């Protein structure tokens, strides 16, 4: 709807129409998006079909789908994807369990509720790299407080290739559970209180009430939290990169980084980036379908 | 079924006293209405009976048993709320089955089906059973909500303004349906409302509440014809009663220094009083003793409510629809001297005492 300007406003005085004003706001954003997002996106799509190397001045050759074929048939890349999948599953499900659990605990009134909620949100406000660095210290087999307080001796959290990935995922859970908690809390507090009262009068058990009333009503917002966390976990880089150099923690983003900036296979790394993009899109699509279903029910 | 007795019930939220030393005795099978304006403590009283709130002081008895420490589930009451409180994402059938599937009941699926069948036939919602609740209209939702109460065969039905969110037509039809239902089930109903029409049409007895206290308990007729004070008098009845300041000397009422009128004496009162006269007891007729001007006319179809202006005072009268009146026209009026109520000018209490 286009409303007319207040005839006495300064904008009207200068002879600006609503459309002019709208354009003043919208055009800079569109330009910014084109220059910094859409152009590089398309440009890198072009590169993904070439053997371009940013480190040399060799002529760029069009190679068709070769980059994609090579990547998809490379067992090492598949192992990167497997690692990423493991990481996503462990870290996102951990965050949902811890975050939703915390939200359930916080969804009642008790003294200092506001303060405790704020404190619980702190991890998510820290920088990834900083979190990675001090968890590295916490995990340290010689002087780390985790081994010390759990009495685990010299357990090499990040040195042991079998557990390093889970140690990184644990840090991610610590850092991002508050995010799930925050969204779940919003969902929980939106459940009308009278439904619980009706259920208590209808003699529904707590478990029944939880599965029949709470969960269906919180599900849509919980799914949104899961979508966000899955996308983030899928492209995770900083934590794993800072905390561990193990091959068993080489998630696909780290592989991508090495390919692009250490091996200088620019064209091929663009292709890999596109493969990751398509995968993330597929996964979120599945979620969004569930989300729509959850909303319909 | 059940008799409900509240004894000296007080409920305070912090410094705010919502219900103050309330006594109630609701007989088995009675349709009992708690009537009052917003904030009178009706809903709080109902919630205490349901077990959703604990009284600060006092005892609640259901069938002579002190239930103060019982939770809502143990009290075996059904609650119908204004917001319907249907369980989302379930079908109507699942909503009706919800209270029956509780493990405390141990009902077989066949029994559950039978009860749902009965309730849905009673409320004429059989055709809605397989629909999701968010696809229902307001009236249908409230029917389902009442159905969820019926299937439980509870000791008491508690209803918190169940009709307030519905449109006028629907409210009217559900009103008679509810009354009908209560008589068929023979169940005890406690019904909270701020709408005096609902109270008058459905209630066997009405308790009028104001500021956390009971002002008057009685049959609708009682409350209407013999209100305990000016609050009840003006709260019950539509159009509202005319309350006019004046004074009484012998059998003659001098009203607001504007006109004089005879009354039938019933109490030995002299001096300043507040006169109460219902619009239907004010008569507009040629040859009547007093003159007034028409201030306003409201046409209600079956009758007209005219507002008369006498000096600075406004007074409403119900006249038959066929009477033609125009605004600012001069008319003559009188009142039915037997129907004049006398209230204390200071306290507002009815000076006739409890006699009907």
UniProtKB/TrEMBL annotation, chain A:
<feature type="transmembrane region" description="Helical">
    <location>
        <begin position="271"/>
        <end position="288"/>
    </location>
</feature>
<keyword id="KW-1133">Transmembrane helix</keyword>
<keyword id="KW-0813">Transport</keyword>
<dbReference type="GO" id="GO:0005886">
    <property type="term" value="C:plasma membrane"/>
</dbReference>
<feature type="transmembrane region" description="Helical">
    <location>
        <begin position="209"/>
        <end position="228"/>
    </location>
</feature>
<feature type="domain" description="ABC transmembrane type-1">
    <location>
        <begin position="81"/>
        <end position="287"/>
    </location>
</feature>
<keyword id="KW-0472">Membrane</keyword>
<dbReference type="GO" id="GO:0055085">
    <property type="term" value="P:transmembrane transport"/>
</dbReference>
<dbReference type="Pfam" id="PF00528">
    <property type="entry name" value="BPD_transp_1"/>
</dbReference>
<keyword id="KW-0812">Transmembrane</keyword>
<feature type="transmembrane region" description="Helical">
    <location>
        <begin position="163"/>
        <end position="188"/>
    </location>
</feature>
<keyword id="KW-1003">Cell membrane</keyword>
<dbReference type="InterPro" id="IPR035906">
    <property type="entry name" value="MetI-like_sf"/>
</dbReference>
<feature type="transmembrane region" description="Helical">
    <location>
        <begin position="118"/>
        <end position="138"/>
    </location>
</feature>
<protein>
    <submittedName>
        <fullName>ABC transporter permease</fullName>
    </submittedName>
</protein>
<dbReference type="InterPro" id="IPR000515">
    <property type="entry name" value="MetI-like"/>
</dbReference>
<feature type="transmembrane region" description="Helical">
    <location>
        <begin position="21"/>
        <end position="43"/>
    </location>
</feature>
<feature type="transmembrane region" description="Helical">
    <location>
        <begin position="85"/>
        <end position="106"/>
    </location>
</feature>
<comment type="similarity">
    <text>Belongs to the binding-protein-dependent transport system permease family.</text>
</comment>
Automatic annotation (TrEMBL), chain B:
<dbReference type="Pfam" id="PF00005">
    <property type="entry name" value="ABC_tran"/>
</dbReference>
<protein>
    <submittedName>
        <fullName>ABC transporter ATP-binding protein</fullName>
    </submittedName>
</protein>
<dbReference type="GO" id="GO:0016887">
    <property type="term" value="F:ATP hydrolysis activity"/>
</dbReference>
<dbReference type="InterPro" id="IPR003593">
    <property type="entry name" value="AAA+_ATPase"/>
</dbReference>
<keyword id="KW-1003">Cell membrane</keyword>
<dbReference type="InterPro" id="IPR008995">
    <property type="entry name" value="Mo/tungstate-bd_C_term_dom"/>
</dbReference>
<dbReference type="InterPro" id="IPR047641">
    <property type="entry name" value="ABC_transpr_MalK/UgpC-like"/>
</dbReference>
<feature type="domain" description="ABC transporter">
    <location>
        <begin position="4"/>
        <end position="236"/>
    </location>
</feature>
<dbReference type="GO" id="GO:0005524">
    <property type="term" value="F:ATP binding"/>
</dbReference>
<keyword id="KW-0472">Membrane</keyword>
<dbReference type="Pfam" id="PF17912">
    <property type="entry name" value="OB_MalK"/>
</dbReference>
<dbReference type="InterPro" id="IPR015855">
    <property type="entry name" value="ABC_transpr_MalK-like"/>
</dbReference>
<keyword id="KW-1278">Translocase</keyword>
<comment type="similarity">
    <text>Belongs to the ABC transporter superfamily.</text>
</comment>
<dbReference type="InterPro" id="IPR003439">
    <property type="entry name" value="ABC_transporter-like_ATP-bd"/>
</dbReference>
<dbReference type="GO" id="GO:0055052">
    <property type="term" value="C:ATP-binding cassette (ABC) transporter complex, substrate-binding subunit-containing"/>
</dbReference>
<dbReference type="InterPro" id="IPR017871">
    <property type="entry name" value="ABC_transporter-like_CS"/>
</dbReference>
<dbReference type="GO" id="GO:0140359">
    <property type="term" value="F:ABC-type transporter activity"/>
</dbReference>
<dbReference type="InterPro" id="IPR040582">
    <property type="entry name" value="OB_MalK-like"/>
</dbReference>
<keyword id="KW-0547">Nucleotide-binding</keyword>
<keyword id="KW-0067">ATP-binding</keyword>
<dbReference type="GO" id="GO:0008643">
    <property type="term" value="P:carbohydrate transport"/>
</dbReference>
């Amino acid at each position: 709807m286009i409303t007319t300007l207040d005839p006495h406003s300064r904008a009207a005085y200068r002879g600006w129409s609503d459309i002019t004003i709208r354009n003043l706001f919208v055009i800079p954003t569109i330009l910014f998006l084109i220059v910094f997002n859409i152009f590089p996106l398309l440009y890198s799509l072009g590169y993904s079909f070439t053997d371009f190397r940013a480190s040399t001045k060799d002529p760029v050759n069009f190679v068709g789908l070769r980059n994609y074929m090579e990547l998809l048939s490379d067992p090492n890349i598949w192992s990167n994807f497997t690692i990423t999948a493991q990481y996503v599953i462990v870290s996102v499900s951990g965050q949902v369990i811890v975050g939703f659990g915390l939200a359930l605990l916080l969804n009642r009134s008790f003294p200092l509720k506001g303060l405790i909620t704020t404190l619980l949100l702190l991890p998510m406000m820290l920088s990834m790299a900083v979190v990675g660095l001090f968890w590295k210290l916490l995990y340290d087999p010689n002087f780390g407080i985790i081994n010390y307080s759990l009495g685990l001796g010299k357990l090499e959290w990040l040195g042991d290739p079998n557990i390093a990935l889970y140690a990184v995922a644990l840090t991610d859970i610590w850092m991002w559970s508050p995010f799930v908690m925050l969204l779940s809390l919003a969902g929980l507090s939106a459940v009308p209180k009278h439904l619980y009262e009706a259920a208590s009068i209808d003699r529904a058990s707590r478990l029944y009430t939880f599965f029949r009333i709470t969960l269906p009503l919180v599900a849509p917002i919980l799914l949104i939290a899961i979508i966000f966390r899955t996308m983030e976990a899928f492209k995770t880089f900083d934590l794993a990169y800072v905390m561990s150099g193990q091959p068993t923690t080489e998630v696909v983003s780290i592989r991508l980084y090495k390919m692009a900036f250490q091996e200088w296979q620019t064209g091929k790394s663009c292709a890999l980036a596109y493969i990751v993009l398509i995968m993330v899109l597929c996964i979120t699509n599945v979620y969004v379908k569930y989300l729509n279903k959850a909303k319909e029910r | 079924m059940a008799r409900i007795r509240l004894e000296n019930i007080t409920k305070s939220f912090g410094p705010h006293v919502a219900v103050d030393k309330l006594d109630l005795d609701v007989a088995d099978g009675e349709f009992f209405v708690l009537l009052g304006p917003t904030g009178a403590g009706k809903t709080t009283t109902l919630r205490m009976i349901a077990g959703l709130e604990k009284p600060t002081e006092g005892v609640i008895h259901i069938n002579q048993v002190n239930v103060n420490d019982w939770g809502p589930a143990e009290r075996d009451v059904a609650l119908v709320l204004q917001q319907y409180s249907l369980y989302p994402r379930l079908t109507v059938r699942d909503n009706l089955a919800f209270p029956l599937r509780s493990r405390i009941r141990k009902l077989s699926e066949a029994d559950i089906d039978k009860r749902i069948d009965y309730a849905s036939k009673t409320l004429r919602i059989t055709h809605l059973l397989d629909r999701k609740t968010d696809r229902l209209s307001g009236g249908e939702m409230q029917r389902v909500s009442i159905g969820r109460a019926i299937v439980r065969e509870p000791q008491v039905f508690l209803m918190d303004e169940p009709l307030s969110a519905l449109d006028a037509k629907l409210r009217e039809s559900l009103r008679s349906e509810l009354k009908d239902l209560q008589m068929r089930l023979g169940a005890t109903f406690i019904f909270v409302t701020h709408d005096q029409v609902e109270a008058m049409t459905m209630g066997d007895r009405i308790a009028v509440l104001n500021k956390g206290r009971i002002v008057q308990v009685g049959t609708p007729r009682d409350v209407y014809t013999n209100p305990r004070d000016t609050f009840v008098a003006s709260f019950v009845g539509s159009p509202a009663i005319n309350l006019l300041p004046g004074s009484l000397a012998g059998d003659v009422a001098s009203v607001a220094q504007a006109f004089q009128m005879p009354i039938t004496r019933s109490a030995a009162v002299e001096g300043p009083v507040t006169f109460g006269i219902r619009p239907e007891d004010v008569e507009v007729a040629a040859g009547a003793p007093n003159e007034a001007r028409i201030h306003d006319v409201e046409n209600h179809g079956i009758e007209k409510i005219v507002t008369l202006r006498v000096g600075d005072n406004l007074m409403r009268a119900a006249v038959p629809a066929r009477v033609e009146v125009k605004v600012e026209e001069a008319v003559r009026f009188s009142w039915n001297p037997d129907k004049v109520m006398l209230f204390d000018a200071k306290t507002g209490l009815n000076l006739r005492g409890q006699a009907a």
